[in-house]
Amino acid sequence: MTPRRDELPKLHDLRWSEIDPRTHPFDPATARAEVGALAPAAHVPPPPEGTDIWERIAWGREFAGPWTGEMTRALHERFGPWVLGWGYSAEGSGGAVFSWCCPTDSVTTPEQTLDRVAASLCEWRAWLEELGEIYERHPMGSGDRADVWERAATVITTRVVERTQGAEAWYMHCAQALTWYLTMWGLSLDTAVEWTELILEGSFESWIVPGDSAVQEVARQVAAAPWEKQGRT
To answer: What is the pTM of this model?
Structure first.
């Protein structure tokens, strides 16, 4: 589905070719300056005084959350769709970054907030670059596809576990990383999502780091998917 012009695409709806860092130039050394030059940087919402938790939650919903959305939109316009995971925190949202937690906790003073945005953006970028290197080391077109897929699934899953530290819903990002790998090597997005979600559903749990044998077994099941019966893009 094509999003309306005023809507941002969803990260899980994107193929690897759309977020591949090789196609989107980015210099981490200038990230903080770039973030500070974006329009939302001029109006970081001040957090409420006091320690009332409900007041802070309401402020996060009414001010910090919408501001974070504005920042995401500005980053998207400046750098491209790869930035959509910049606030994809491992602490509570199944993501892969630790520099940003959530709007309610991460939006503080303007200086600290923009520092966090830039740090998280760089962290996310570095992670995408690492994933890209892993994907390149396991080309689906070489040798038996099922064997290549099984090895790749094992490596990717193991690395996602390490990266996310097995935090809440980490397996969601694992499914995302596996899906991107498959789309990079020609599988349709719908089929890639179907494969990964079908196999990963119920296989892993939040806050539990699976052992090597569990990862290998899931990779084996993933590799057994009927490639020949699926369409390729």
So the answer is: 0.87
